Structures are given as C-alpha cells and as structure tokens.
Amino acid sequence: MAEKKEIEEGAEFRPKFNEDGLLPAIAQDAETNEILMVAYMNLRSLEMTLSCGLATYYSRSRKKVWQKGEQSGHTQKVEQVLVDCDQDCLLVKVKVDAGQCHVGYNSCFYREIQKDGSLKLVAEKVYDPGKTYKK
Amino acid sequence: MAEKKEIEEGAEFRPKFNEDGLLPAIAQDAETNEILMVAYMNLRSLEMTLSCGLATYYSRSRKKVWQKGEQSGHTQKVEQVLVDCDQDCLLVKVKVDAGQCHVGYNSCFYREIQKDGSLKLVAEKVYDPGKTYKK
C-alpha cells in the first residue's frame, strides 16, 4: 500500500509530455477561479514560469517559447502551478489585471456550444485588441 | 470589420480536432469553479455530452468513449459547454456530488509543483477509491 500511495501521490514530478514535448496548461484566475485560457508548455517554458513567476508558454504555431503578455502587456503573475494525477496536464493559477484573450475578452471561453451545434456569445469584450496588438 | 468579427466571434462551431480527432476538455465545478479534471473528447463524445447532459469523454488509453462515472458512479451533470477562441479546447461546467479524481480527491489537481521541482500535496482525499473502483 505504501508503494501504491507513493506512485499515486509521490512528491516526484515526472511530467508526461506528449510526442511534441508539450503539456496543456490551463490558466485560471486565482481570485475569481475563472478559466482564462489554455496553452501549452514545454519543459523550458515551465521552468521559466516557475522561476520568473510570469506564465510562459510554448507556441505551437510559432514554434517558440513566449511569455504571456510580451506583446499585449497582459501578463499573468503566477500564484501556483499544479499538476494532475496523470502528470500530463498543468493548472496555473494566476493574477491578472487585463483581458487575457487575444480577441478582447477576459477569457478565451466566451462562447457556449448549444445543443444544435451553434455558438452563443456569453461574455462581453473588456478591451480593444485592435489597439493592443500591433498589426 | 464585419467579416473579421464573424470569423472571430461567429456562431458557427468549427472544432479544430487534433490529429487523433480529439479536443482537450476541462471539467469545472459549476458551483465552486474548481477545476476537477482534464480529459479528451472526440466528436461522438461531445455530441453525447450535449444530448445526454452527462459529461462523456474519449479514453486515449482504452481507445473508447466513456461516460464519466460509468464505473464509479461519480458522474458529471453538464450545465454548460464552452469553446475557446481557437476552437481547439472545450470547457465543460458540471454539477457533481462526489470526488472526481480516480485517486480519491475532489480534483485531479491535488499537487502543487514547487520551484525546486518537487510536488506538494495541497488537497485531502474525499473518498476511498479502493472501495469505489473494482480491481
């Protein structure tokens, strides 16, 4: 039992990166518990997140490490980084002071999927991305 | 601008499944906003989730659709399914009445990653998985 407990709950961090060396990472507002976004981290970006205290991800499209907010200024100050039971997903609790979705919403999850498959807008924009992101 | 708005916020659901036909899906407690778990959905399990009102996922290890709680009884009653800006991740807000992690915790995110890379237990078990899951 002791051995089983160690396997399940052990203090050793053994992240199970996917074939691209990445883990999905959920950013959650530490104050409101709202889910802000989901991005990916490689080992380097996770290490930077832990050491610098600002959430840093790996962009699959640009194939590079990026600190959230490096362009927009809408950074994420890290309060806590958690890992799930399977060690294949991260949860990053962050403090923010500006909208986190590049489309202009506080959260990337601003649309609800209806039973008929259509999408319903369930949030309001909190900033103008046209003024925040350079073309 | 109207066209851009439509692309960004349009009512059409165009999920971007990964190469395995899956999307990560975050289960969030609709009452407390706690993140309970992250699993994957294929189109079939998403359709079942929307139509049946019980969160249904696709098991990558067992290669089959599974309804959360089919073995443990710890089901997830779906309140809302949201999709993110890129349409490559789902957020499922659920009502639950039992621990959701198969290890015995309320949430799968029961361990915090410390700066030195070790893990710290930050939750307490809410049920005995040995009694809930058959060997």
Description:
Two copies of one chain form a homodimer. Chain A is α+β, with helices and mostly antiparallel strands and 135 residues long. Chain A has one domain (2-98): Ubiquitin-like (UB roll) (Roll). The first copy, chain A, is built from three helices and eight strands; from the N terminus they run αββαββββββα. The first copy, chain A, has a four-stranded mixed sheet, covered by helices on one side. Chain A has a two-stranded antiparallel ribbon with strand order 3-4. A two-stranded antiparallel sheet of chain A has the order 7-8. In chain A, strand 3 (56-59) and strand 4 form a beta hairpin. The longest helix of chain A is centred in the middle third of the chain and has 10 residues, at 43-52. The radius of gyration of chain A is 17 Å and the shape is globular. The termini of chain A are far apart. The model of chain A is unreliable at 1-7 (pLDDT under 50). The interface between A and B is large, with 45 and 45 residues. Strand 7 of chain A pairs antiparallel with strand 5 (77-83) of chain B.
